Amino acid sequence: MELSQSALAASQLEQLSKITTLSIDSGDLNVIKNFADTGFITDATTNPLFVSQAGLSGDPVYAKLVDDAVDFALSQNLDELEATVALAIDRLAVNLGASIAKIVPGYISTEVNPKLSFDVDASVSRGRRIIAMYDEMGVPKERVLIKLGATWEGIMAAEILEKEGIQCNLTLIFSFVQAVACAQRGAHLISPFPGRILDWHKTMNSRIEGVSPDKDEGVVVCRNIYNYYKKFGHKTIVMPASWRPSRGAGFELDEICALAGTDRMTIPAPLLQKLQDCEEDLPRKLDPSNISCDFDAEIGNGMMDEKEFRYLLNMDGCGNDKLAEGLRAFIAETKKLEKAITEKVLSNRKE
Q1: How far apart are CA 251 and CA 151, in angstroms?
Q2: How far apart are CA 194 and CA 241, in angstroms?
Q3: Which terminus of the chain is more exposed, N or C, with fewer CB under 10 A?
Q4: 10-residue block means of pLDDT along the chain (351 residues)?
């Protein structure tokens, strides 16, 4: 269905776009264009799942991106197969990102291989390589966010890259402590996952019934992060991702509405469609001029060290469990893509 600004005049999508910068969470170029054309979506995020789906889809548009990535990697004449495959996957992610950059005017996010989430040096190297490839394609680094999992090592890698002028998006944030550490180390943007935080608490508490959006544990974490950042002057952008219905089926927009006014959000197409279809009033819930924060001083005296970070993360059951789970899921998708790209690299080498 063709979307138009006139059709969205009174929609919650338009209302939300006036108080929160919106990103679409998708790797589907047609879907991204459909929503970008409304003028209400300025950015786009991808993750290993989207890159894997693109690489394995067989769609001619994405097949060309894959072929180009493999040809590019082979042209570098690297000695090791593993290095060639890794380069091809990075190139595929950049090819996809560069295609998206032609559709949206704002940020595009490209993730470093999640298998490197505990290797600072390798993460930094990959981040630099991704930025260099974008530069070759005419996409300035100011438009690219390097996505890194918010492990301690990922945060340290982001600190190094940020000092080089490479902006980072720290993802897989399921705890307040991760968010604080990211801000203290100068991360440009973070992606907390309210829906998955809610999932964890529902499971741990064997809770079947829904909760009020304001009491949704994922909403509470994101709200606390936002207020903490504003109180202590952190410039790090809060961009929640991954959404669930606080009150259960039929209330899919609960968390989005409860966090209206946060700096940014990245939202998948089905939920953007629901926002487009709804014309109810959408009041602002987060406002930098009206914050509530219980902290009198910064955690870690303003610069948490590794020992304190690991201790506090370990003591946060949700943060600890969901970070590990999220990494396993992203790594599993990466391995699927590695297998397919390896086969293609070997096939092309023989030709």
Answers
A1: 32
A2: 7
A3: C
A4: 50 97 93 95 82 76 91 94 96 94 96 97 98 97 98 98 98 98 98 98 96 98 98 98 96 98 97 96 96 92 97 98 97 93 88 62
Whether the Cβ atoms of residue 172 and residue 149 lie closer than 8 Å to each other: yes
Do residues 116 and 126 lie in contact, with contact meaning Cβ atoms separated by under 8 Å? yes
Structure tokens, 84: 């060639």
Place of tokens 């991954």: 242
- Burial (Cβ within 10 Å: 0-12, 13-18, ≥19) of residue 212: exposed
- Residue 91: per-residue pLDDT: 95
What residues are annotated to the active site? 147
CA nearest to 150, candidates 109, 103, 182: 182
Question: Can you read off the two tokens belonging to residue 182?
Answer: 């990211």
DSSP 290: S
Cα 113 to Cα 127: distance, rounded to the nearest angstrom: 10
Report yes or no: 265 and 44 within 8 Å, Cβ to Cβ.
Answer: no
CA angle 32, 223, 248 (to 5 degrees): 65
What's the pTM? 0.93
Rounded to 10°, the helix 81-101/317-350 angle is 110
User: Residue 275: what residue type?
Assistant: L
* Bridge partners for 192 per DSSP: 173
> To the nearest 5 percent, what fractions of the chain are helix, strand and coil?
55, 10, 35
